[in-house]
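QUALITY CONTROL LOG
STEP: pairwise intake check
CHECKER ROLE: data steward
CRITERIA: each record must contain a sequence immediately followed by its structure tokens, with no blank fields

ENTRY 1 OF 2
RESULT FIELD BELOW
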Amino acid sequence: MSDPYSTRGVSSPAAPLSAPGQASGTRCQPPAWTLPGFGPMTRITTDFGDFPAQTLRVGDRVRTRRGPFKRIVWLDRYVLDEAFLACHPEALPILIRPGAFGPGLPLAEVVVSPAQRIHGPRMQPGVRPQPAGLLTSGPRIMRKPETIFTYTLFHCDELVDVHVTGLWIPIPPRAPAAPAED
């Protein structure tokens, strides 16, 4: 059973990575970054108020759009070091400034993974949330340069839209764990 409070280091070795079939010493080819998550100081609404993502724990209850507070059943933190970010710039966080989606949306800065899906300013039926990395064409949404960064990723027991500084952000349920091999 994995530790729900674990911190996973995601990094690359000091030497540049080589793709299979490439000569050693060539620059790495960045894969698509697919992990969602929140920046450390992005405030998530819980039953005790708004708290930075870095302080969340398994068992905390987060506000959902449907009304009830839902318990966090799984949480992880991914630390991206300087070597990893130099090799994989597509993993750099997305900064969403106040008012990016209209007055008060969001109320304060929100920092998310480029793979974190976000609803637009007006949640319309049939309109799917977009990855934050695709929203950087506006003047208030941009990549945030960092040399080291930590994402907090969490799940409840079902698909929920969580309140994040005035925005509703979808959080899918955790995928079932693969069965253990004998």
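ENTRY 2 OF 2
RESULT FIELD BELOW
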Amino acid sequence: MKFTHESNTTKVPPVILEVDPKPVFYIGPATRENPMSQIRTKLLGNVYFNDSKMKWNRITLHFTGKAGLNIYAASSTLPSDVVNSQSDLQESSSATTHLETTVTLCDVEKELIFTHEKVIDFGFYLPPYLPPSIRTKHAFVEYNLTVICSSSGPFSKKQKDVKPVTVRRHYLPSPSSLIPSVEYHGVREWFEWSAEVPKATAIEVGEIVMALRWSVEKELVEIDRIEFCIEELETYRFSTKAGVHNLPPMVTQFPCTMYHPPTFSNSSETHFIRTPIPLISTKREPKTIRTHHFDPFLEISHRLKLAIHFIASTATVQPLELEFPIIITDFPPDTTADYFVNPLSPAQSISTMSDSSMVSLVQPVFASSSTIQPGGDEVPCVDLDLPEYTPRYESVQTTSTLPPASSSTAS
């Protein structure tokens, strides 16, 4: 008879890295013109040492970020210098080019001092111009924090542990922030209109509301109904020596809401047109809305589409279609950040963003090892010297062999 002894003990790694599971957040666009870009964002975490016999002589934290693009683009949508560089086998307008590249957004180091304690708490300051984390069908932005521990001597060892880090970027600091509106005007023969559209809105609000006023010659035509909806644009972009180029955007239109004006309305009345923000997937609309996003290869933006339908007694009148840009974002969670001030002044606290969010005013410290390569709102170059394949890129029209007349630049 054979006896076996089962042990419940499991082998614990000598070094374990733990980071705060909450996302790291920034406010405003990833540009140096952003007034909130001076806020220093800190990533909190711990390093646990489970081997008491091991003496580490060097402990290094590495924070790295990468952005990537992997997409098939129709040659007719690419600039002429790219199309002309294709092989003879792909001279037809239906050929596609495989765009694939990965760039480094940041690579920052921080040294920790080993004090023979079982755990070291750390606060890692992150670069201020990082684009948010995302992963779509054709692009990604991801971040990782790595701890590397090494010992010296004849039996030197090296231990490594990696943890992912999520970065979020918001465009409204708090629910109490004042959101300005943009006023638009227009005239179409017998119809004059004026619209006030908010520059941004948060998904927590649940709906988008715009104010619309109009004046119409009722002897000729009357307004029957107004269709109001949100459109999401997913635009992939890259840069070559000729400049920045945008591929045709992938447009998702969410369900429209209908507004019927009152029977007895005049030109002095203000009509509030509303449409919900789709946050829950349904059978009718399985896709939910995403917040505004901008990184080296991808831009997710939104616009409001308004279709005004008329009733005419004499002839058929075509609907008037209007489009207005809007930023759809979310509110950041309560957190603590450090702000830059004069190094000679003592640290002090002020309340910002919300009652429970405090920031400390301290002197800026720029890490010498912090190198921000193409990232944020900058556009890195894409390597076009890659194998080419023939699958079509979505539903891009390839009837024309000419490249786009002009290329859009990064906003």
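INTAKE CHECK: passed for both entries
DESCRIPTIVE NOTE, ENTRY 2: The CA atoms of residues 227 and 327 lie 20 Å apart.
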